[in-house]
Amino acid sequence: MRILTDEIINAVCLHIGSRRGISPTEVEVQLSWDEEYGFTAEVWVEGRSQYLVEANLLEAIERYMLEQYNTRVYRSQITLDADEEFWADITI
Prior knowledge:
Elements (H helix, E strand, L loop, with lengths): L1 E3 H16 L6 E8 L3 E8 L2 E5 L1 H16 L8 E5 L3 E5 L2
Helix pairs in contact: 1-2
């Protein structure tokens, strides 16, 4: 199974919203990748920014898969990748 950029962003918005007790629509996310840090996301909530590392992104995707697809996946089953778009391949 593969989820694309929009679903990864939705996963992060839902995850951060749930953790902070706010609506997911109040969360803005920008995904990025570089050689030094790998996959990261900059998240803006209430005018403040925060950086998430790859482990945080995988946690958000795990939760998203459980809540949206009723499928339990583990980090070892998720592979992040990117070219012009970001995606996560999930081995079920």
